[in-house]
Amino acid sequence: MIIEIIKVPFGFAPLWVRSNWVGLKMTAQREFKINSGYDVLGPQSDKVLQGRERKVEYYMVEKTVALKALATKSPRAAQWFEKNLNKGTLSLAFGADEVKVFG
What we know:
Blueprint: E1 2-5, H1 15-18, E2 25-27, E3 29-35, E4 39-40, E5 48-49, E6 54-62, H2 63-73, H3 75-84, E7 91-95, E8 99-102
Antiparallel strand pairs: 1-2, 1-8, 3-6, 4-5, 6-7
């Protein structure tokens, strides 16, 4: 399936880097994960859920596909990810609320 990033994704990268994802379209795979125990409510929140389980939907994009797409918009942002991602990272995850799905 194809996704389009429609809002700045959550993550560890600086805002100027993450904002360059908006508008990009990429091939992705839909996945689910069960979060349990401690779960941060959001990037600006210091509140934590304890002892709750919830199903989280997200979309995985192969790292090489994602960085190639990012480089078309901002080579500098793509270079930042190349330098700062863990070497073993194979895919990047985008939350269901961060994307529009096509097909």
